Structures are given as structure tokens and as C-alpha cells.
Amino acid sequence: MNTNKNTMPPMINIIVLFMLFLSRQVAAQSNNEVLKMDLLKTEIIKMDSLLFDVAFNQCDVSLFKKIIADDVEFYDDRSGLSTSKPNEIKSLLAKCDRPEKLTRKLTSCTIDKLGDFGAVQIGEHTFYINGKPEGTGRFIHIWERKDHDWKLKRIVSYEHRPIKK
To answer: What's the first-to-final CA gap in the chain, in angstroms?
Structure first.
């Protein structure tokens, strides 16, 4: 009988080494996934900024056309369903022709991966007229990644509420 307390049976050594190896692999995968999610969130926030801070707020119609998918679907609690990219462009042009300046600011959002398809962005925003807050709303955006470009494919805009003055 072996009385040396420092000696472990060889099988236990192998199991301990294997478990250490697996824990390092899991940690490496977790770090890689965290980095990928950080990159995804950065890309979607950038797209949101391009769509609203530039295209919507500054009336950059050519940028708006590039970001909105050709088969866009826009579900709105006030106007229902729009499935026409040309109608969305007309709506932006009409907004830009109004004397009062309507702008949108992102209040908060979460972003999650949708497999290899793209991402979902769920958030809240505030709308301003001539720099004064007018109302808030919630939204769900489905972003599709095509090659290296992002397209806004589906929009759900709901819970529009005026700011209480």
C-alpha cells in the first residue's frame, strides 16, 4: 500500500489536466464571444447614428436610401404597416420640407445577435421639434448584414407618447 500522500493515481492526473485544458478553452471562447458582441454593438450603434443623427435629423436622403432595405417593413402604432421603401423616402422628404425641425435622439437600447442573419436592436427614443422634446417612443429594429453592409430590414415603432409639459 502506498502511504505517500503526494502521489495521485495516474488517471486522476489526466482528468485534472483535461479539466484545466477545457476550462481554458471555455474561457477563450467566452472572451472571443464577448469581443464579437462588443463589435456587433458598436456597429449597430454606428448604424443607428448614421440613420438618425445624419440621414433623418439632417435630411441626408441618399444615406437613408443606402441604409433602408429594399424590402423594408415598417410597423407603426399610429399608421399601421408600410412595405414600400419609396414611401419611406417620401415620408422623410415630407418631414424635411416642414418648417419645424423634427429630430430624433436615441435614449437607450439593447442589441443582440440574430445568428448569421444580423442583429436586433430594441430601444427607446425621444423626438424633438425645434430642439424641444415633444414625445417618446419605443422601437425594435431588425438589422440584416449583407457582406460588410448593414440594412435596416424591419422596424416596429410603438408606444408613442407626448412629453407631459
So the answer is: 86
Residue 30 burial by Cβ neighbours in a 10 Å radius (0-12, 13-18, 19+) = exposed
Cβ atoms 126, 133 nearer than 8 A = yes
Give the mean pLDDT of 71-87. Answer: 96
Structure confidence by residue, pLDDT tens digits, 33-63: 888 999 999 999 999 999 999 999 999 999 9
Instruction: Please name the residues in contact with 102: beta carbons below 8 A apart, sequence gap of 6 or more.
Output: 95, 127, 128, 129
Q: Which domains does the chain have, with CATH numbers?
A: 10-162 (3.10.450.50)
Global model pTM greater than 0.90:
no
* Higher per-residue confidence, 165 vs 9: 165
Alpha helices in 98-135 (DSSP H): none
Which has the closest alpha carbon to 159: 126, 121, 128? 126
| Spatial contact of 71 and 81, defined as CB atoms under 8 Å apart | no
Amino acid at 83: T
**Which are the contacts of 118, defined by CB distance < 8 A and separation ≥ 6?**
142, 143, 144, 145, 150, 153
- Cα angle for residues 45, 47, 51 (degrees, 5° grid): 120
